[in-house]
Amino acid sequence: MTEAANPGAHNRRRGRPRIDLRRLGRAALMGPAVRDRLPDAIGHVVDAHRAHHPDADLATLHRAYVLAESSHRGQFRKSGEPYITHPLAVTLILAELGAETTTLTASLLHDTVEDTEVTLDQVRTGFGAEVAYLVDGVTKLEKVDYGAAAEPETFRKMLVAAGNDVRVMSIKLADRLHNMRTLGVMRPEKQARIAKVTRDVLIPLAERLGVQALKTELEDLVFAILHPREYERTRALIAEHSGACTALDTMAQRFRTVLREAGIPAEVLLRPRHFVSVHRVCLKRAEPRSTDLGRLLVLVGEDADCYAVLGELHTCFTPVVSEFKDFIAAPKFNLYQSLHTAVAGPDGAVAEVLIRTHRMHTVAEAGVVALGNPYAPTEGAEPADGERADPTRPGWLSRLLEWQQSTPDPDHFWTSLRADLAHNREITVFRADGCSLGLPAGATCVDAAYAQYGERAHATVGARVNGRLAAMGTPLRDGDTVQVLLAQDTSSGPSPDWLDHARTPAARIAIGGWLDAHPEPSRTPPAAPRRPAQRTAERPAAANAVVDLPDATVRLAGCCTPVPPDRVTGFPVRGGAVTVHRRECPAVARMTRAGRSPVAVRWGDAADCRVTLVAESFGRPGLLADLTEAIAAEGAAIVSATVEPPTEQRVRHTYTLHLPDATGLTALMRAMRDVPGVYDVSRTQHRGAPAVTRPRSE
Predict the structure, then answer these.
(1) Given 4, 211, 229, 372, which residue has the most CB atoms within 10 angstroms?
(2) Statement: the pTM of the whole predicted model exceeds 0.85
(3) pLDDT of res. 146
(4) Which of 3, 40, 47, 114 is catalytic?
């Protein structure tokens, strides 16, 4: 557990000695450099680089080191170390993660333009456009020019640069990691400020880029600064259990035996948890077990072997079903792939297990750094449409780049960036046309609308989720299908309530911009619950329904409002009247079960009828006027109309109508459905529908 006991320890290859940065700095400034080989000060970087890239051309690294050493000569860090130790350390971090030569060259030079007399043009001339682009991407903006906005604008510049080449972000993360390792020489208040920015921005970026090796160490360093008491308690707990790995060691040996007997070549390693992970376990369990301080990692050669290992472990040990997760079939949005499970041994000890291939492990540790140069030409492959395909350009980065263009204000950008990065999980939903949308976990239909249509989503009147109508504030789940419904009238705007449902900065910025551009007087105020408004017209005679009872008065039931040529039946009621229902009306079944005797009913020669229709719609200005106009255009007369209070922007209209000809009912309902915002029109068939009092038939 020695790695977990030292939050500053980087994941080094076994057997590689710890690097003395002070010694490297002295060698850089005073050690002789042999003409045809690299200086000793960069030897560790070369060894780490060759371990991942045996055929790498080191000439460029040599020249970059010479330029960095000479330009930084005479500069010292606040700790007193020669400044060259910093770019060397940053480059070593990236080399151990497997970064290619161009990234390492840029990392050696990443502070030259910012802190020395070297210009960007000189870097471009000496090392090419790619290296110059990376160096420029991580170069800070001057406080003299930007004042308090220098930090947020520097991050904006870096993110925009990363949109074209994500290696910019890799260098920035390694740069921040080394700065955090050496933060102890700063004043406590400055340590806290830098740690908070690291927590709110850099750690989420490392998580989203899949660089777990950097993310976990940054988490521990921030934890030690911002929560010193909890850190000390966790450190003491780890030290107390430093020799208590017997249970995990025993389980690891059993795993090796089981897999060897099954003929599955695999490597089983004990993987200590880092400080923050141990702290989270302590919050979850009051008394952590000795096996909680580490996990077992099983590495295999092929994807199929991962599932073979899972089957053997679940067969030979007792699986904890609730702990199983398959991130191979469904990778995380940050490229992470692995099988997660937990099993209990014969003695009851429970061990968490990670199962992955060696390639998956490399990507899990190094993320996008392990992908190398996304723009390197691939033999036999041609990018589509002349554009460079970038596998390191994730959807969240594309969305971030889109909304940042709409936030010129640095404070607004800084706040929105932190809020966006706070969502550390992503879901994938599908549009009606089959295309996918990547959204942060917790996103709603509002976010899906703006992700798909941008500012056109202002005219959204509703959405269907998995074929069902849903409110705009409905949270979406991974794999949902979302159909956004747009109004034909593009002049309509979003509801202020949408701001409460929006989770993505793009949606919040677009909605806020529209609301600011349309002040309160010109905006339809949010609907408040109100009493149903009803207007009643003169009631014409009911449709001609004839019953086989002499002198009986006929009433058409208000619950189902039958019209010709509906199949109908009647039931005698008090006062010698007969109430006529449609046969599929629920009231018919209830009265039949109660033993009531039905009466035969037929339609007479009269063609007119009265019917009650319910229109379900999304609220928008002018909807009531458009509906009544559509009804009048079909020749129907409104007997009564009821509008219920809006619920989650959905409005229910109930109309009792008199039609001169019952055959026009279908066309009438179709015309009402065609009104923008109306998603369903039906005839009343339940007791909740408002009943209309019918005059007795003549």
Answers:
(1) 211
(2) no
(3) 67
(4) 114
